[in-house]
Amino acid sequence: MVSEKWVGAVFLLQLCWAGCGFCGKVLVWPCDMSHWLNLKTILEEITARGHEVTVLKFPSFIIDQSKQFPLHFENISVSYEREIAEDHLNKMVNLAVNVIPNQSLWKAARTLQDFFLQLTGIFEGLCRSVLYNQTFMNKLRDAKYDVVVIDPVIPCGELVAEVLQVPFVNTLRFSMGYIMEKHCGQLPTPPSYVPDVMSELADHMTFTERVKNMMLSLFFDFWLQQYDLAFWDQFYSETLGRPTTFCKTVGKAEIWLIRTYWDIEYPRPYLPNFEFVGGLHCKPAKPLPKEIEEFVQSSGEHGVVVFSLGSVVKNLTEEKANLIASALAQIPQKVLWRYSGKKPATLGSNTRLFNWIPQNDLLGHPKTKAFITHGGTNGIYEAIYHGVPMVGVPMFADQPYNIAHMEAKGAAVKVSVSTMTSADLLSAVRAVVNEPSYKENAMRLSRIHHDQPVKPLARAVFWIEFVMRHKGAKHLRVAAHDLSWVQYHSLDVIGFLLACFVILTFIITKCCLFVCQKCCMKQRKKRDTRKKKN
Ligand SMILES: *[C@@H]1O[C@H](CO)[C@@H](O)[C@H](O)[C@H]1NC(C)=O
Ligand SMILES: *[C@@H]1O[C@H](CO)[C@@H](O)[C@H](O)[C@H]1NC(C)=O
Ligand SMILES: *[C@@H]1O[C@H](CO)[C@@H](O)[C@H](O)[C@H]1NC(C)=O
Ligand SMILES: *[C@@H]1O[C@H](CO)[C@@H](O)[C@H](O)[C@H]1NC(C)=O
């Protein structure tokens, strides 16, 4: 017995040492909501491997330090309260669900622009309370971090890293119009076959679709440049005390961890410092809580449908909730609906409302036939992981894009949240549950996702540790970062070669003309002398 215990203890110690081959200090600049859920998986793994993780925390919804989880938190003392952030989140949902679908494209762009300008104001306050608080910055400097892990959706993380002179890793799903990946990270994004993230297009595009894609790409380039980036360029230059841009600073990232993979994404060119780690949070299903398991088992051979619009949409309008409930009441499956709004009057006896559901465990349950989802990346990946076909009700951000991709790959049916009727939703759910092709395609994506040489979480952790061990990953950095726009597109070289060609053509033409003229003149002289003789 005693010896067994010793062996156990020695083994544990060895495990610790193996994990702690190099123990570093990680600083985290997070983003809230689903972004945090994803990042947390990486941080848990990094902590388990013996590194020390400190999260910079602002007033937030789900970044929760009370949970049993060995992370350190540094509170940022900002002037705004959680309620303001909540207010903006609700505004965004309202814009996406009720306002924007009813507007023309240009009006919608204006609405979004106004909204983003308000956000910029909030983010500026956050940035100032970190970067312009010397006590706070000195505290961070004294801690001597080895790497900063940043979600660049909230600006200034990379600016903090730059001021502290610590290498950083970006973790990102996407940025508006791929601005950050394309312009700051130099990721090649040819508009001829890489559809814009807001476009819902596929990779094989007709001429008109390519025109649309190009227009969107230019629109985002121009629009963001004008309204948002100009502000941040100035803020970054002011803070660093030298002229710089937002993009240059973000582009200093050693590694970009992108939260998709070739199961969602169409094949596209990428760079050695871009890792596609989609689905890193996915885990095998655990047993369900007893009450939920009983409900699931009561569905018999028909199985269950899981329904969640994510953590952002808490309550819909009463009209919409009734419409959804009456559609769900007509299917033979039992439905688990994550919803904390008022109970809809048309709720069927087969549908049960939950404030929270163990989504991953439910999707991994053999009785689950379909997943009705808003199309957030985390949920989509859990469905792919477990091979569950989907009904997509996308609203904003990358949701329409994700659902469009799942639809193109035959694993989902899309329903529009703003225009759907009860019948639309019902026929979509019936199709996904009853037509075997949806299940088959979901299983195919699942097999692609599972069959990887190194799992996404292991790759993400490897690259963060790599940056700590080597103080960066400069060997993966393409020289495109040091080229101007003209040089990148080789316009100077093309111009030079064109000029050479034009000059050469000119000289040759001139020479030919000269020779011809000489010849002609000789002949004319001969003719003239012949004429005179005659
Ligand atoms: C940060 O703020 C929370 C309350 O929002 C508090 O419970 C926690 O103790 C604070 N942490 C530190 C390190 O000050
Ligand atoms: C769209 O706007 C028009 C005019 O403002 C209004 O009458 C209509 O009800 C709106 N539609 C929706 C779906 O909100
Ligand atoms: C600056 O940061 C320190 C340490 O976190 C904090 O105690 C202090 O209140 C901050 N100062 C201001 C003006 O916010
Ligand atoms: C959601 O519920 C809250 C409180 O019950 C309410 O104030 C708010 O207007 C509701 N939102 C929608 C879109 O129905």
Describe the structure.
- This protein has 534 residues and is of the alpha/beta class.
- The chain has helices at residues 2-19, 33-48, 82-99, 105-131, 134-142, 157-164, 179-184, 207-240, 246-250, 290-297, 318-328, 359-363, 377-386, 399-408, 422-434, 436-450, 456-470, 485-488, 491-533; strands spanning 25-29, 52-57, 72-75, 147-150, 168-172, 255-258, 274-276, 304-308, 334-338, 351-354, 368-373, 390-392, 412-414.
- The strands form two sheets. The protein has a seven-stranded parallel beta sheet with strand order 3-2-1-4-5-6-7, sandwiched between helices. Strands 10-9-8-11-12-13 form a six-stranded parallel beta sheet, sandwiched between helices.
- α3 (82-99) runs antiparallel to α4 (105-131), α13 (377-386) crosses α16 and α15 (422-434) packs across α16 (436-450).
- The protein is globular and about 120 Å long.
Keywords summarizing the entry:
534 residues, alpha/beta, Rossmann fold, 2 domains, six-stranded parallel beta sheet, binds 2-acetamido-2-deoxy-beta-D-glucopyranose
List the helices and strands and how they pair.
Layout: H1 2-19, E1 25-29, H2 33-48, E2 52-57, E3 72-75, H3 82-99, H4 105-131, H5 134-142, E4 147-150, H6 157-164, E5 168-172, H7 179-184, H8 207-240, H9 246-250, E6 255-258, E7 274-276, H10 290-297, E8 304-308, H11 318-328, E9 334-338, E10 351-354, H12 359-363, E11 368-373, H13 377-386, E12 390-392, H14 399-408, E13 412-414, H15 422-434, H16 436-450, H17 456-470, H18 485-488, H19 491-533
Parallel strand pairs: 1-2, 1-4, 2-3, 4-5, 5-6, 6-7, 8-9, 8-11, 9-10, 11-12, 12-13
Helix pairs in contact: 3-4, 11-15, 13-16, 15-16
One 2-acetamido-2-deoxy-beta-D-glucopyranose (NAG) binds at residues 315, 317, 341.
